[in-house]
Amino acid sequence: MLNEFKAFIAKGNVMDLAVGVIIGGAFGLIVSSMVDDIIMPIVGAIFGGADFSNYFIPLAGGVTATTLEAAREQGAVFAYGNFLTVLINFLILAWIIFLMVKAVNSIRIKEQAAPEKPAAPPADIALLTEIRDLLKARA
Prior knowledge:
Helix content is about 75%, strand content about 5%. By secondary structure, it is mostly helical. α2 crosses α4. It has five helices and two strands.
């Protein structure tokens, strides 16, 4: 069983998947930072300096806090601002992945479209072909 597990882990697809998951996680953190630290403050400034991450509707009667974190400690809240931030994060990540896949597909199409030139036949085959053609021309 241990040998089968080693063979499974050593396969290229498993290692590619592991690398993809690790890089995807790191890339997700970069996109989250871009949304939280760059895009949402600009969107907030456009809409009057509001911080979208603190937009919420209290669902419990005792919620009087003005920040989402404090409001969650007081009771149930509908955190639509946080959802908006996560949604923008997802859309940016999906767009970047789409562009990456599109670039890879265009490279693959170019590779498939360029037909390979057939290799030149060996000298003896070329000589025999030439002789054959000359004999056909005489007949």
